[in-house]
Known about the structure:
Layout: E1 2-7, E2 10-15, E3 20-23, E4 26-28, H1 33-48, H2 50-63, H3 66-72, H4 78-91, E5 96-103, E6 108-114, H5 117-125, H6 132-146, E7 151-157, E8 166-172, H7 177-187, H8 189-234, E9 238-241, E10 244-250, H9 255-272, E11 276-283, H10 289-304, E12 308-312, H11 316-324, E13 333-335, H12 338-351
Parallel strand pairs: 10-11, 11-12, 12-13
Antiparallel strand pairs: 1-2, 2-3, 3-4, 5-6, 6-8, 7-8, 9-10
Helix pairs in contact: 1-2, 1-5, 2-6, 2-7, 9-10
Domain STAS: 234-345
Protein name: STAS domain-containing protein
Organism: Nannocystis bainbridge
Amino acid sequence: MIERATLGGLEFEYDTERGNIRMAGNPAIFIWTESTLTGLISGLQRMVGTDRFRLALHGGGRDGVEGDWAYISQFPSFEAGFAALVEVAATFGWGRWELVSLDRKARRAVLRVHHHWETNIQKVLGVSWGASYLGGKFAGIFQRHFEVSQCWAEQVASVTSGDAYDEFVVTPSEASLEDRIEHMLATDDATRADLAVALERVRKEVDERAETERQLLEKLSLIAQQEEAIRALATPIIEVWEGVLSLPLIGAVDGRRAADTMGRLLEAIIQKKARHTIIDLTGVEFIDTATAEHLLRLVMAAELLGARCIITGIRPSIAQTMVSIGIDLSKLTTRASLRDGLVYCIDQARTGGR
């Protein structure tokens, strides 16, 4: 259900089902000035400080005049449009505005305001901040009227300071709102203290992250060392006789371990100038097809470096796997045990054979 009423020439619509109000066709709310609005404004002031609070309100008022200027522009002159806006503002509870003087040539306007909501809030709180939001609104309106890049509304009288009204002088300004904020940040002791605290907090966070990163790198380095030690223990390469290396394999031998073993063994063959390498499979119970192929490539690579490979300790299941993939065991040098393999290598070294 929609209920309608006209006040001050403006139509108010109340949607009872949704709980919404529209004034002159625009969404609006009613709010208690001396309780709800006062609590909202005072909370913001306590959070940011009075100086920043004033600048924030001035900027908010300046940036919120698009609708006001569009309304003024409907009339044949600025004075007529502003006078009409005065009536709208009074209807909406913004107090009574008065354009005291307007000098277009000098680009200077003087305005007075009676019973504005910012003043009422400050009376309740017992403070005197000035009507910064309304000042920003005047600055935004006359910035467009004077056709300049920026204006500033200087409050020269204030009800909360004992004057009969709030009065503003609006003129073009070389310093923008952003310039004023930057200047305040550079000169305000409280602001500098806030920045110092923030910077110190950032510095501590950076230091903590750097320390955490250092600890992680140390842990990663330790893990890498442990993995290297585990790989060395898993594939120990032992020089059991002059020119004879022994590589006992124990446990499961997957593709990754086989590839790692190949690299370590070939490096050891070069370093030790080995002529024989015994690959002992006594401790290996099972290998798959891929691992058997890796083992064959390991034998071939070692022999390309001049080291004859002797395979010892082949279990029946491993032999079956090698035969199933087409490896001719008769072409490999094999012995039943590591001892037999070592005896073979020693005999070969003594007789000068390979």
